[in-house]
Amino acid sequence: MLPVDPAAVAAQKLLQQNQAQQQQQQGQAQQPGIQQPAPGTQQHGNEAVGSIKATEPMWRCSRIMHMQKELHPTVLASLEGIVDQMVCFREYWDEVVLRQLRQALAKCYAVAFENSGAVSEANITPHTLSFVKKLVSTFGIGIENINSSVSGQFASAGSESLARRAQAIVQDPVFHKMKGQFTTDFDFSHLGQMKLHALIHKLKKWIKILEARVKNFPKHADCERLSYGLYIGVLWKLKRCFLIEEKCRYLSNFNLHTAEVELPGEFLLPKHSHYYIHIARFMPMVDIVSKHGTAARRLYIRGHNGRVYPYLVVSDYSLSDARREERVLQLLRMLNHFFAKQKETSRRLVNISVSRVVAVSPQMRLVEDNVSSLSLLDVYKLRCAKKRLEPDTPITRYYERLAAVQARGAQASHQVLRDIVREVQSAMVPRTMLRDWALTTFPNPTHYWTFRKILTVQLALIGLMEYLLHLSKLYPDMMYIHQDSGLINVAYFKFNIDDAKGEIDGNRPVPFRLTPNLTELVTSIGVSGPFTASMVATARCLATPSFKVNALLRAIMKDEIISWHKFSSIFRQQRQEGGAAESTQGSGTSSIEGEALISRVNKAVTTITSRIQSLASSDGADSKSPVLGSGK
């Protein structure tokens, strides 16, 4: 059976809706001169408000999907049913607002750090102000307008479920009360409301309110290593899960006899058809968990081999960044093939843990999950809760000390900054916080040693990939540690491309993340031993000429450069200046010229390979790995 992409199924449904709307317009206008455009041609003429213009790639996708429907009608119908039901797993209104508030707080912290030279005088930037005002104006509007956004002709079972949920929320007096309070608190018309730290205080207040409402704190963290039945029982008592048959009847009734549909992401790497795992059924319980910066829904899918595979349904509202992450993940999957073939990397069990990520709609993805995984940020919050400490206390203390020094008419010197760090480490976040968590989680010495050994190799791999491939900064909420194995998978890794130039940005003072807490867990012997050895062995593996890593890099970087050109601010400005002349999508004007594309791709590949060769050629006392590992 041929692989079928769920995202292509969603695109096909959008195209069918667009065609039906155009046919309805033609019938109402009764103009025989207007014809349905043929595949491969551009559309011109008036369109209905809100309709999606079918571009050439969409027409080609439509033809492919029609061919697939003729060959595999049952599989395509089943995939369309599954995609329709995914809309039932969208976030509730309070979860959406909570996610947006966290994004706003992160933006404010970034602005505050840039203006740390004048803490008390820092004002809200226009971009941040626009983001917060949009958040205030759209508080609950997306839920309220679901009924009008879904056409009665094409409404699915999932859309009807969302409409019923929207009606219940709109009639909820608590919703209207919170909306009024939210609008009042974020009214910037009063004097003094434009101060940055005043906005940070309000955002933290509302984050606490909404976290208490959605019960976002991981109360079940101590139960994550229980069996499936006991784990579900604990979540049911905490009301953090629901029955799938209550919202998704089609998924509840789906089984292996309905259609032979493979697990999401089975076709991301080629293998023999006998080894593909089919969906036997969807398990009856769905969890609500806080991962990937949102309130995700965790599905449990039983394969035909009897094993249960957890997947997260994640709402993704940044389509371009999501595709950029998928390109990096696909590159890491292909590099694992080389690590298994080379002796030094194979004997060290060098293998990057890469989660399966599959787009099922323009704003929703299925992400492979591990029930026992915790991010570094989750570990930090758990230890802070044990000490009865607010997670943001170190940040608040940092700016309080800076403001106190600046109030005396001076600027914070290096000695003052070092004193702040010592105060935070001694009273709030000790250097041994991560190691203490590991010792508590793994009381057995053998289990602790094995966990630390695997974690050390994984940290070396992730740090090396971040340094060699010029990936984005690794934040604590991006690194997920598997408590059952010590493996680490990273979410939202992207190439660090300069938005203005379209080139890889390699000017970073810190090459990768190896903080004091990570160093205490790995120990100095681990850094100079397996950590450094794994880095050098991996770099030499990638430098092997027979593996032709350059060819993979060129293929990936080509898509990255094309994506940058399409979504960069420079191109958007050119497209706006072009006006109606560039209104059609998919035309030649939206693609970068061949010579410019080749030049940018070759420059990016050369930048990456130069670092690979530099690290692979080092040895002994001249090795650069200890320097990198020390963070210098």
UniProtKB/TrEMBL annotation:
Residues 20-47, 613-632 are annotated as: Disordered. Residues 20-43 have a biased composition (Low complexity). Gene3D superfamilies: Phosphatidylinositol 3-/4-kinase, catalytic domain. Pfam families: PI3_PI4_kinase (PF00454). Residues 283-604 form the PI3K/PI4K catalytic domain. SMART domains: PI3Kc (SM00146). It comes from the Eukaryota. One of its GO terms (biological process) is regulation of DNA-templated transcription. One of its GO terms (cellular component) is SAGA complex. This is PI3K/PI4K catalytic domain-containing protein. It comes from Halocaridina rubra (Hawaiian red shrimp).
